[in-house]
Write a structure and sequence with these properties.
Elements lengths: L7 H23 L3 H13 L2 E2 H8 L3 H13 L3 E5 L7 E5 L1 H9 L2 H10 L3 H20 L1
Antiparallel strand pairs: 1-3, 2-3
Helix pairs in contact: 1-6, 3-4
Length: 140
């Protein structure tokens, strides 16, 4: 068996943990967990989605996203409304406070660039390579 450091699965896992640790102090200041930040980010890029849409974008189950959304709603960062056409669909949108908090979280990318000692273009290239790897694995 190959040592852990020669296994891409471990390298990706350990890197993900390192990024989350780097983000944690800033997220703590914002009063967010990393999963909550991801939900806000998805809604910020899409303008609003259903719970199922958020779950699909994050590659999670709706049952995992729903508690996150409820906590963010209780914090006044987003709204949930039942669809008039289909009451099973719950539509989610950022509030003005959610948009403002998401804007304040922009510094997370700066933190990663600073910590990684990589340039923006280098991180972008790496991100595209990892996305291509993910897409190939998902297609298999």
């Amino acid at each position: 068996m190959r040592p852990l450091d020669q296994q891409i699965c471990f390298t990706l896992y350990a890197t993900s943990m390192a990024v989350t640790r780097a983000y944690k102090p800033l997220l703590d200041e914002l009063g967010l967990t990393y999963p909550q930040y991801l939900v806000l980010s998805v809604l910020g890029e899409a303008g609003g989605l259903t719970i199922g849409g958020v779950a699909a974008r994050l590659d999670l189950e709706s049952s995992t996203v729903t508690p996150l959304v409820k906590r963010l709603e209780a914090s006044g960062l987003l709204t949930r409304t039942r669809s008039l056409e289909d009451e099973r669909r719950v539509e989610v949108k950022l509030t003005a406070a959610g948009e403002a908090l998401l804007e304040r979280s922009d510094c997370l990318g700066d933190r990663l660039m600073e910590r990684s000692k990589m340039s923006g273009p280098q991180l972008e290239t790496l991100n595209k390579q990892i996305q291509a790897l993910r897409d190939q694995i998902n297609q298999a």
